[in-house]
């Protein structure tokens, strides 16, 4: 049986607690860096008071704000962020938002450390079916603190995706030194995220669990994390929709996001994520929505060869599997996700969200 579980993608510290951002000054003071650059997109900058609150808490420890994050982490914005980071002599990056904000922080850290102006110079080269050439990014990286407003998983791991605006392709950069030093899940902060954005990002976390469990690299530890995260998400996501102010449901979902990310950081993802990255980069379909739509389809596509693993997924979802074959249990699990999407009020067809 055996297992392999690396600490490469495990943050030094993760806090999930109401009001957690109030302690960020103390956390920064405990680190040696003293010049923090806040990184966020327009949504967080214009529609919430988070940036002002953080500036108020950090005071002189905050030296500037880069609010140029774009959905799907467009490569040119990473170059802009790097310039500002160097100009301000920032020595700590604090990203606030969803996956694109955290990936932007990681991209800035790479360009500052490794040099150059194009993050894609440091990308992983993938050759189907499963050959990955990961460049060695040897220089020390600026520390990163992530404040998660969604359930992206990018707030946890030292891997990131970037979209080339010319080719409309998304490429991956991986370096365990990019794994955030501190991850902050503050459920009260999560309440500032519109519910559709929050629960659709939850379907991204759900997908991380499913693809972990039927990954070729599945193992007991990541299975356990992913199965428990599925249970939490099944309960929390519908509650978020039923009551916009259900802070406990948001907290539960955040715990699930963290567990799912630890799991997939060790088992990696599959065809669903590959397709969702294309849908994001080429058609601009938000990653969570793409995952919600594609997940049941990907499960059915993989069912023939992953039936035994999908029966585990069904059991984790609370489906009665007794008397069912693995294929029947897997089909029931995919059907259950269709129903969950409907309950969450999420789009069901790519053509309704700008896709093909
Ligand atoms: Fe994802």
From TrEMBL:
A Pfam match: ADH_Fe_C
Database matches in Gene3D superfamilies: 3.40.50.1970, Dehydroquinate synthase-like - alpha domain
Listed name of the protein: Uncharacterized protein
Residues in Alcohol dehydrogenase iron-type/glycerol dehydrogenase GldA domain copies: 11-187
InterPro entries associated with the record: ADH_Fe/GldA (IPR001670), ADH_Fe_C (IPR056798), Alcohol_dehydrogenase_Fe (IPR039697)
Residues covered by the Fe-containing alcohol dehydrogenase-like C-terminal domain: 199-354
Keywords: Oxidoreductase
One MF annotation (Gene Ontology) recorded for this entry: metal ion binding
Family: Belongs to the iron-containing alcohol dehydrogenase family.
CDD domains with a match to the protein in the record: Fe-ADH (cd08551)
